[in-house]
Amino acid sequence: MRIYVDCDPGIDDAMALAYVTARPDVEVVGVGTVFGNNGIDVTTDNALRLLELYGRPEVPVARGAARPLAQPPRTAEHVHGRNGLGEVDLPAPAGAPVDHSAAEMLVRAARSAPGSLDVLALGPLTNLALALSLEPELPRLLRRVVVMGGAVRAPGNVTPWGEANVVNDPEAAEVVFAAGFDTVLVPLDVTMRTVATEAWLAELKTVAGRRAETAAGFLDFYAGWYSTVFGVRQCAMHDPLAAAVLLDEAVATEVVEVPVRVELRGEFTRGMTLADMRLNRDVGDGRPPVRLVGAADGEVFLARMLDALR
Ligand code: BDR
Ligand code: CA
């Protein structure tokens, strides 16, 4: 399987990179970075550091968008730490980003093997929207796009109704949801229910090795912040759950095909994801459906996540 990862590392992005790089049968053809959990300099530097940590220094990293299409950027140091990785210091990267943008790298990768590449999108969708403007045929050149983003029936996490990856660039998300990709959407509805429990975090601490020990450090910080949400030291695993669904769609145990839109004008609801859940399918307005994940097999996911860190 050949995959391209677009991300804003970010602690859970780091866990997703650990997940996909642990699989010898998965070729990561490139990693694009985007602003989001931190500014673009930090997320790009983190992507390089993480690929070195995970033994994949040869994977090209392309620096992507520094800001959303139509609003100022916002970051999340309170969730991910000032360095985006829970204040865990990783060695400075030996490598550097390639000389073209993340949007350009995605287009090149898609053109080089039409119909065979899967994209894992784990940050604001700015780079994907920019790639679409460079190559309008992108939905036919890619095999699948798995997006962590949105909150359909769940509350938001940045605004009462908005999830970070969508709220941080609503225009880009709207462009991507309208484009006709074969999209699998993994929203907060499922990621907030498929959490790394206190027991799982305790088990992680018993695993030796650099991957596991570093992850335990990241998640210690992350669970500290998430305890303000959950009341106990557990944490959401948004991005690695999307990775798990990409690598094995059976991890998603409930999926509906529905059109999804992003509210762009609401005074309070800008960035809200709206899924058309009506049962009569003859009422649509031509917007292509996405595959919206409503539930996942948390046990299988957490077991595989731990294996990936061993
Ligand atoms: C998403 O937002 C980011 O903070 C996380 O990395 C994840 O991709 C969750 O809303
Ligand atoms: Ca992310």
Automatic annotation (TrEMBL):
<dbReference type="GO" id="GO:0006152">
    <property type="term" value="P:purine nucleoside catabolic process"/>
</dbReference>
<feature type="domain" description="Inosine/uridine-preferring nucleoside hydrolase">
    <location>
        <begin position="3"/>
        <end position="302"/>
    </location>
</feature>
<dbReference type="GO" id="GO:0008477">
    <property type="term" value="F:purine nucleosidase activity"/>
</dbReference>
<dbReference type="Pfam" id="PF01156">
    <property type="entry name" value="IU_nuc_hydro"/>
</dbReference>
<dbReference type="InterPro" id="IPR036452">
    <property type="entry name" value="Ribo_hydro-like"/>
</dbReference>
<feature type="region of interest" description="Disordered">
    <location>
        <begin position="65"/>
        <end position="84"/>
    </location>
</feature>
<keyword id="KW-0326">Glycosidase</keyword>
<dbReference type="GO" id="GO:0005829">
    <property type="term" value="C:cytosol"/>
</dbReference>
<dbReference type="InterPro" id="IPR023186">
    <property type="entry name" value="IUNH"/>
</dbReference>
<dbReference type="InterPro" id="IPR001910">
    <property type="entry name" value="Inosine/uridine_hydrolase_dom"/>
</dbReference>
<protein>
    <submittedName>
        <fullName>Nucleoside hydrolase</fullName>
    </submittedName>
</protein>
<keyword id="KW-0378">Hydrolase</keyword>
